[in-house]
DNA sequence: CAGGATCCTATTCGATACTG
DNA sequence: CAGTATCGAATAGGATCCTG
């Protein structure tokens, strides 16, 4: 998920793309935003990502200094993630990507206007109301069977 | 390479990530920049991408309105690519990603200072001097054999 | 020259089960 | 709760050959 060839480049731009150039990391960074978020929260906000991939991406983001992980020695365990200074500095870039898309997208879907914070927005986007992810469909099927 | 689930989201940010959220497209857009570039040029500027993947990415970028493809009816054929207005509007975002990385990267490699244009810079980054890509190594081997 | 088609391999990803 | 381990399926990607 991190392209080591890109990261080994002597070009800072290429290295940056090697680090954050995939589809999950911008989404994760955007979802965390300025908040402090627990692992399970992220998993339910972004239901289409599997817990395995989520854990992998979070680990890489931590290694690359984009976020800070705080594990509390409790039972049941509690782990909180928040963006580092580097990660926070990336948020304006994500905002500009959204603005860019809104301005130039050929066939934009209808979008409810109003005051959407970064987080509620991100939550709206990739969730069960927007498109039915596989694992949610699976859960629904199970529920029907149980009934 | 385009995540259709992301593109079907009702969130413009998620759709944007579904469109350009991979490692190749930012590189390609950056390499083209404000120039008009031929297919073969791109293939030699970015030697680590295979021609197949390059063609696929270019087609998607064209479909998404980021670049314009001009095919001249000549023999041998000549095809030129240049960024559309939408694609050009994405360049400042790529610049800000580079600046962000330069400012916050934990262990940046040494970088030669000086006046580097977008293009020569991109060419430096992913090429045979930076790290030896497989197909260049192959070509070199062939050359040795020929000699 | 600029690709398309084909075949094959490597990598990613998801589902499931398990643990401290 | 917050992961990790394992396995199998899906996908990305490379090599090669072919064509207008």
TrEMBL record, chains A, B:
Signal peptide extent: none
Record GO terms (molecular function): DNA binding
Entry annotated with the keyword Transcription: yes
Residue span, HTH hxlR-type domain: 11-109
Keywords: DNA-binding, Transcription, Transcription regulation
Pfam families named among the record's database cross-references: HxlR (PF01638)
Matching InterPro entries: HTH_HxlR (IPR002577), WH-like_DNA-bd_sf (IPR036388), WH_DNA-bd_sf (IPR036390)
Record-linked PROSITE patterns: HTH_HXLR (PS51118)
Claim: Transcription regulation is one of the keywords in the record: yes
Protein name per the record: Helix-turn-helix transcriptional regulator
């Amino acid at each position: 998920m991190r392209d080591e060839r890109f990261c080994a480049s002597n070009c800072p731009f290429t290295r940056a793309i090697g680090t954050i150039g995939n589809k999950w990391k911008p989404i994760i960074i955007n979802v965390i935003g300025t908040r402090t978020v627990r692992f399970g929260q992220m998993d339910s906000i972004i239901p289409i990502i599997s817990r395995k991939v989520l854990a992998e991406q979070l680990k890489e983001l931590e290694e690359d200094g984009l976020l800070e992980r705080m594990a509390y020695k409790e039972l049941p365990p509690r782990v909180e993630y928040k963006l580092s200074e580097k990660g926070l500095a990336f948020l304006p870039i994500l905002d500009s990507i959204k603005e860019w898309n809104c301005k130039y997208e050929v066939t934009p879907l209808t979008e409810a206007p109003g005051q959407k914070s970064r987080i509620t927005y991100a939550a709206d986007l990739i969730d069960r109301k927007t498109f039915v992810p596989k694992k949610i469909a699976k859960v629904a099927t199970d529920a029907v069977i149980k009934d």
